[in-house]
Amino acid sequence: MTVRPATPDEHLSVMRIVDGAMLEADADFVRERIENGHVLVAEEERRILGTAVLEANDTGTHIEAIAVRRARRAQGIGRELVETALERYGTLTAEFNPSVRPFYESLEFDIEWSSDDRLFGTLESEH
To answer: How many other C-beta atoms can be found within 10 angstroms of the C-beta atom of residue 104?
Structure first.
């Protein structure tokens, strides 16, 4: 498996994976992130298995969405996407539902409540 930046012609595949994970992401926003090099894809045998949509901000890089094809979940693909993003961009932040807290905990994000029903996590690069 390879993790690399998405190309503009992969926009539809990225959106299908994000939509399949029932995450909200504006298609134009994702297209812009791809053009800026801030969307990573995990691929194997030329098939995209997962994606991370990222947004640079004042405190590092925020994970707007991370999604993996349903049939390939729990196989380390999300972990690879996050680890590659951490290597490329440094500090990562994410806001997420409590149901995915175990994923972020397994990556050693520092987690706190950001609202009544959302969590906020930070992961700092060791570099």
So the answer is: 23
Closest CA to 69 of 3, 119, 15, 2: 15
Q: What backbone phi and psi angles, to 5 degrees, belong to 6?
A: -70, 155
Q: Does the pLDDT value for residue 41 go beyond 70?
A: yes
Do 29 and 39 meet the contact criterion of CB atoms below 8 Å apart?
no
Residue 72: name the closest of 80, 64, 62 by CA: 80
Instruction: Spell out the domain ranges in the chain.
Output: 2-89
**How far apart are the C-alpha atoms of 3 and 99, rounded to whole Å?**
25
CATH topology of domain 2-89: Aminopeptidase (3.40.630)
Edge-to-edge strand list for the sheet holding 119-123: 2-5, 39-44, 47-57, 60-68, 92-96, 119-123, 110-113
The pTM score is 0.91
Per the CB < 8 A criterion, the answer to whether 95 and 117 are in contact is: no
Nearest to 89 by CA among 50, 41, 48, 37: 37
